[in-house]
Amino acid sequence: MIWKEKYMVGVPLIDQQHEELFSRVTAFVETLRSLKPWDQKLEKVNETLEFMKGYVVTHFADEEAYQAAIGYPHYQDHRKIHQRMVAYVVAVSEEYENEGFKEELMQQFGGKLMAWLINHVLADDQKIAEYARSKGVN
Amino acid sequence: MKRELLTSFSNAASQTFKLLLDLDVITDPVQSQENNDKKEYLENINIVIEITGDLNGEVIYSFPKDTTLEMVKMMSGMDFKEIDEFVKSALGEIANIISGNALSSLSQAQLICDIRPPKIIEDLTFTVSEGCSIYRTKVKTSIGDVELNLQTTQAVG
Fold it and tell me: Measured between alpha carbons, how far is B28 from A12 in angstroms, rounded to an integer?
């Protein structure tokens, strides 16, 4: 995944976290897609997955705090989008552990995560940026 | 009214392709299909999204395989040579995003609906049943054309 200028929202903390998230998801996808046998990439996949589970929660919390601070009117709707994604990540992680770390589930997770993240940053998060610009806040 | 419904989905597809993939899109006018018409989507990846609420039915997005692989390449920056679980899941999420955006615009016209998770079917063939209405349009891009079918099982408008 290539980080693009148009992904930036103009808030340094959020942009920095988005860039880190893109970097981690890219590393995750590259590991998933490498031609090595699954058992040889399992450790790195699991390590990246664990990091992302924590980082997504931290990032969402920081982003929600920023929205609250600037009085973003769609704060609750945005929070629900975050909560649904966290619930999905938790559910997939549990299924993955319970069913013995199967590759198919992680490939499905990687594909959805990539498309979701790009859309979320370009569509939902840009609305926060538009509101902040319209109110002259940063 | 049903033509307008499908137009909401094709408009949402155009906006999503532009936003996520920087693709410019031309959309064909919506056409209706008669009973017993048969349509085959072989060599395609088909995403079926069930709609419930004020409108009951399903939207079927039909992506050519080459278009699918190119879309996932554009998002990931990586080459994909075959349709696998990663690719199907990414495409399912794109269809999910398009459908969510379409329903959001329909809700502004007081039509309240929900969607179920996408079902992914390769090589789909379907026939228009008695009593069903099907509307079709094509979203044309530089990397291939995506067909959208709306099948409703309940009269709207």
Answer: 42
ipTM higher than the 0.95 cut: no
The widest CA-to-CA distance across chain B, in whole angstroms, is 45
Closest CB to A107 among B20, B76, B85: B85
- Which residues, listed in sequence order, are joined to residue B41 by a DSSP beta bridge? B124
| Count of structural domains within chain B | 1
Q: Do A111 and B94 touch (CB under 8 A)?
A: no
Q: Which long-range contacts (CB under 8 A, 24 or more apart) does A40-44 make?
A: A42/A101
Query: Over chain B (157 residues), what is each successive 10-residue block's mean pLDDT?
Result: 82 95 89 67 85 89 95 95 95 96 88 90 70 83 94 64
CATH at B12: 3.40.1550.10
Using a CB–CB cutoff of 8 Å, tell me whether A78 touches chain B: no
CA distance B18 to B98: 12
